[in-house]
């Protein structure tokens, strides 16, 4: 979550895929990839609770086209054989995130044991010599809290193909050796081709899906209003609160900055070139300054409400007291403001 500022006195600064492309498939034709890593990206745990995340990535069938110009019809099918129960699992905690796999472009879901025909997939390119058949991977909202960590799933796909690795004109394959076919596939032709007689046994590709979940918080930081008075001695202490909800199992500390107009370590509100000194203290009655360094920070165990409850659903509430320092001259009448940044560290 990006930092955000709110008027006197509080703001928030919160801590909040890359596909590993395999080396070129051995040989000059098509084949499945074993052990391919597909990254579903990196997201905060609270985002994973409520939103879909998705990525399109190669699905394990890789072809080397030998640099020929490409435009033609290929015959391709895929069958999902294992999806780890449709869950990405954090092996350290047992928590999981549901996911689905779809064909790229038409959003047909892959279902275990059912073949999906991708025959309409077109290879279009000038001199590209290494191409993948893409799939679409999507996580589902958890609707519950999960801890930060690495979530993985092992996927096994069986690919069937009849592909021309060179130029295809008038349904004839103009590459040396002709059509490239998966194991057991029998086409209706040797040169000019119009389809598949038997899809055969196909060939297996294995993928590891990986989702990185990071610690994340959400905060509610209402403005603190001291009201008005004729003299600095007329201001009463004002009580404020900070509400925090963070990732499951994530202990944290909360700090408050010196604001936008400090004089050394003294917080000050400002109007033009006039200042009004004030201070923020931990809890509603103590005199311990709430700052952003070392012991001036507050831990998740020190909240006044729900201290140390880190189930990812329950808010912790930190109360504090704001005081306008009485031992200063009364500045000219005006509205004085400051912005304080509240940050969370894990």
From TrEMBL:
InterPro entries, A to Z: Spore_coat_component (IPR053167), Spore_coat_U/FanG (IPR007893)
Domain Spore coat protein U/FanG stretches: 205-342
Chain intervals with Basic and acidic residues compositional bias: 289-301
Signal sequence extent: 1-26
Keywords: Signal
Chain positions covered by the region annotation Disordered: 287-307
Top-level division of the source organism's lineage: Bacteria
This protein's record includes keyword Magnesium: no
Keyword Signal attached: yes
PANTHER family on file: MEMBRANE PROTEIN (PTHR37089:SF1), PROTEIN U-RELATED (PTHR37089)
Name under which the protein is recorded: Spore coat protein U/FanG domain-containing protein
